[in-house]
Amino acid sequence: MRKWNSTLLAVSLSVAALTACAAPTTTTTASPAGSASPAAGSASPAVTGSPGRLGTILSRGSLICGVEGTIPGFSFVDSSGKYTGLDVDVCRAIAAALFGDPEKVEFRNLDSTARFPAVASGEVDLLSRNTTWTASRDAAGGNGLEFAPTTFFDGQGVMTSKASGITDFRGLDGKAVCVETGTTTELNLATRATEAGIKINEVKFQDSNAGFAAYQEGRCEAITSDRSQLAAKRTALPNPDDNILLEDVLSKEPLGPVTVNNDSQWFDVVRWVTYGLIQAEEFGITQANVEQKIQDKSPDIKRFLGTDGDLGKQLGLAPDFMVNAIKAGGNYGEIYERNIGAGSQLKIDRGLNKLWTDGGLMYSPPFR
Amino acid sequence: MTTAPPSLSSTRPPAAQVGAIAWLRKNLFSNWFSALLTVVLGLLLVRTSLGFLTWATTTAQWAVIPANLPLFFVGRYPVAQYWRIWAIVGILATLSGLSWGILSRNLAKLFDRNILIGFGVAAAIAVLIPAPIPYRILLLALLGLVLASAWIGRLVGQRMPQLGQWLSLGWGLSLLVVWWLIAGGIGLPGVRTNDWGGLMLTMFMSVTSILLCFPLGILLALGRQSKLPVLRWIAIAFIEVIRGVPLITLLFVGAYMVPLFLPGGIRLNQLLLAIISLTLFSAAYLAENVRGGLQSVPRGQAEAANALGLNSVLATILIVLPQALKVSIPTIVGQFISLVQDTTLVGLLGAFEMLGISRSILANPSFIGRYAEVYLFIGAIYWVLCYAMSLGSRRLEKQLNTTH
């Protein structure tokens, strides 16, 4: 009798497994209108004949945007389950430019090892996830990517307490600085110190959290890491306002959206919508006043917002694509301030990310 | 296994050998060395727990947990569709209550003291958790549902004992319903797998992979023992290749290389690929666990079955496999428990399962630096999940215990 019990167990388990088996097969079907350009990653000339990524996205009806998903202020899920952040808002603006609806975007989380294969295999239409623009990543013989305009000029920075009295990089002479070991951060610090002719006492840590804990305990007078990282970690300190980020930037980390090589049509859309957000700030067009600005008399603004000329059509978009993009989350300045600037808890100074007219690097070529 | 009868002695134990102090003396202070160890370790323990308590009550900022409770449990699942998750929990509660009632129909008492205490604790937790009031009422109602359906199951089970055989079918059907409720389609708005998350996704991946890898693992184990060379080679090659590759590599291959090989236009669901990787990986390990069980069954069993006229397939299914599986329950459940924990690796690929969603919550500028609180919380949930599994396996072992 007992034996039959266990047989029953074995059989029932297998039956349960088989019935469960029937369920997953329903999802094996390919998603509708999946990526039609599987060869987008390679330099195959066959792609030129096909409709290209832009056509694929438009027929799919939604944009697939790769984000990091766990970077404070750049991309994360807020308590209501909504993706939030600067990188996310750029994706929303592009979705709005394509479809007139900022919600027609699907986000995929990609970590740093997965991001490039995901673009190459066409898993995502674009990356908007803190990817530094470098020559080897851009080159066809390297990663073979296209870099749209930088949306955040990051760089290695130094945080120190106000009480320490250090005001610039030279002030670190003879001071203890916490740094994560085995990173370019460590190398940059050493290089800059040599250049400045000062001697820095490096306190090395394997893990960035351990480094911040040491800084908090006062075991080093300053800590160095990417400026956006420092700003994020600063908010977690007991008294954030007692700590300052030095103005000195020790390395260049231009971060921006990325698409795959050899699809100029799609790349141009990403590039010009991104430029458009910067241009909108320069024109003073905001989320609030974009409807009034449509009536503006200036020929530049008329062309920009699509009431005149056919820039939208040339890009393969609706004439008022920039109106929709700005309505989604405002111009670049608004996106910046809301997510990582004064309007957020991170309070990262705009620094290099100011408009060129204010002494920053944000510069859009003319919309003509 | 012989149990020697306890040696009978007529002398009563001296009074000093019973009681708390005697116990302490015997176990903790038997000589100077163990006394020293007890004092040192005791102090350390008290110090640590005090430290933890002070931290938990003063420094820790627990607000991050209630503020993100829905995220932890269902991730980005649309708020308007939460009722579907509740319905699933309701179905599972009813089914487990019924199964419990029917299976224990012959016990003298359904709700013994331990079980009542367990339910009391669960009810207290349901009342105390920092969730909105309607959710707490729902949780209490669910507990009531389990008790009620257990009682009904017992009553019905006593009248119709053959009902027990239909339970597994009920569970099988419920899986289809659960799938339908989560994913939508046929009358319900669809929810993309991209929006699934939290505990729900963790459970979904674990349960699906467990159910799929179990039969596959058994087949592989049988294949490896097969007398047919091709079958045996295939099984050996599969097991050794999969076991020789780290799970994270398999997941990466599934997620980023398979799409490159597929013909254009076909895009497989990322979650499906992750589940396939998890299933293949666990099946290879499970096959070895089951093979151990198979080898522990004496050859005589199969020979006796053949002598009775069973062919080799029937002999395997009816005689050898049940005994082999019974022997390997502990290792199989161990494999399942590690499978549950392995689902966290899928979080590295960007899925918002419990660990993934926690990392995203920690990136919310409002909750930066709340690592300890968040990780403790999900750690507790993982512990409950895994401990429940190990408890269940011990019960199963006890029930199937037929030592000869």
Automatic annotation (TrEMBL), chain A:
Keywords, sorted A to Z: Signal, Transport
Domain Solute-binding protein family 3/N-terminal: 62-293
A Pfam match: SBP_bac_3
Range of residues in the leader sequence: 1-22
InterPro entries documented for this protein: Bact_solute-bind_prot3 (IPR051455), SBP_3_CS (IPR018313), Solute-binding_3/MltF_N (IPR001638)
Gene3D superfamilies xref list: Periplasmic binding protein-like II
Annotated SUPFAM superfamilies: Periplasmic binding protein-like II
CDD domains the record matches: PBP2_BztA (cd13692)
GO biological process: amino acid transport
Start and end residues of each stretch annotated as Disordered: 29-50
Keyword Transport part of the UniProt annotation: yes
Family: Belongs to the bacterial solute-binding protein 3 family.
Protein name, UniProt field: Amino acid ABC transporter substrate-binding protein
Organism field: Drouetiella hepatica Uher 2000/2452
UniProtKB/TrEMBL annotation, chain B:
Pfam assignment, any one: BPD_transp_1
Domain of life: Bacteria
Keyword DNA repair assigned: no
Transmembrane segments: 29-46, 85-103, 115-131, 137-157, 169-188, 200-222, 234-258, 270-287, 308-325, 345-362, 374-392
Membrane-topology annotation of the record: Multi-pass membrane protein
Intracellular or extracellular location(s): Cell membrane
Location of the ABC transmembrane type-1 domain: 199-393
CDD domains: TM_PBP2 (cd06261)
GO cellular component terms, A-Z: ATP-binding cassette (ABC) transporter complex
PROSITE patterns membership: ABC_TM1
Main location: membrane
Keyword Electron transport included in the entry's annotation: no
UniProt-listed InterPro entries: AA_ABC_transptr_permease_3TM, ArtM/GltK/GlnP/TcyL/YhdX-like, MetI-like, MetI-like_sf
Annotated coiled-coil segments of the chain: none
SUPFAM superfamilies registered for this protein in UniProt: MetI-like
GO terms (BP aspect): amino acid transport
Single GO MF annotation: transmembrane transporter activity
Alphabetically ordered keywords of this record: Cell membrane, Membrane, Transmembrane, Transmembrane helix, Transport
Stated family: Belongs to the binding-protein-dependent transport system permease family.
NCBIfam families: HEQRo_perm_3TM
The protein, known as: Amino acid ABC transporter permease
Organism: Drouetiella hepatica Uher 2000/2452
